[in-house]
Predict the structure.
Amino acid sequence: MRTFTLPHTDIVVPDVVLGLMRIVEKSDEEVRALVSAALDAGIDFMDHADIYGPPYHGCERRFAEALRLTPSERDRLTLQTKCGIRQPGPYFDFSYEHIVSSVEGSLEALGTDRIDILLLHRPDALVEPEEVARAFDDLEAAGKVRHFGVSNHTPGQMDLLRKHVRQPLVANQIQLSITHAPTIAGPMAMNMAALDQSIARDTGVIDYCRLHDITLQAWSPFQAGFFTGPFLGSPEYPELNAVIDRLAAQYDVPAEAIAVAWLTRHPARMQVVLGTTTPARVAAAAQGSDITLTRAEWYALFRAAGYLVP
Ligand SMILES: NC(=O)c1ccc[n+]([C@@H]2O[C@H](COP(=O)([O-])OP(=O)(O)OC[C@H]3O[C@@H](n4cnc5c(N)ncnc54)[C@H](OP(=O)(O)O)[C@@H]3O)[C@@H](O)[C@H]2O)c1
């Protein structure tokens, strides 16, 4: 497992991490087996959100109740969580009161005294960055949150926050997989008339994050679209699966590893956020971290997913 020091922090992190969005109905044994497979593979970074459940804070609580971490076991983990999506609704809420109360709820549910990284989950159209700044300052001063970041944010939205927030934004978690890569495919095809891929949906987020040392985290690395099921083995992606299977055989790894390697090959040095609840798939996916695809292989996967290399 490749690791690196997360820019703006002193935390050494793996480039594949475990997302816990789907564990609310899992038993203690299942959660333990999942986390244990992750730790065995070198994944000591856990991604949560207050909204993962239901109920609110449900997955955070399931994680803590199943693991019952000792203080030293807790210290060995990086715990990241998110706030800002409210139910019923949904609607988005970056008010001081909501950010602070969500963190209090996460601390209680996770059974910990600090969140290592807090992300603002989805951009709140009504954001008042001064309020976010005040919430971050108070949470940092109280020792409740060590580092801050965002998720699904554009460069403009990050600029607005950075104008007011004192702490560096350390991460931006966005949807990214071989089959959902408008942030990569769009800029590659810039200015191509009559080409859908060229439509600017990405707002330059990858270059912006690289310029400002904001680590990109890729969520839904196996989903074909927005929670539409995995592309691995899907009859809708015969060409892509043929290339994945060929490379998997060549590198002697499972197909999941190739899907991960496509993301970790990107020089932005992203973190891949796995969502599987199957221990064997965690072990399979983690192997992708140690593979460095060639440029030709990386582009072959990209083309096979249906993107144009103009
Ligand atoms: N920031 C955001 O807005 C945002 C949004 C969504 C998710 N996230 C984060 O990203 C994480 C990952 O999201 P995700 O769960 O949608 O991602 P994913 O890893 O692409 O998908 C995992 C799902 O695909 C299933 N699956 C079927 N075949 C698979 C295979 N061969 N390999 C891997 N998975 C397979 C898994 O089933 P099994 O469990 O049965 O293996 C699971 O239901 C979440 O846990 C969460 O932490 C963040």
Observations:
- The two ends are 34 Å apart (CA to CA).
- Residues 70 and 273 are 25 Å apart (CA to CA).
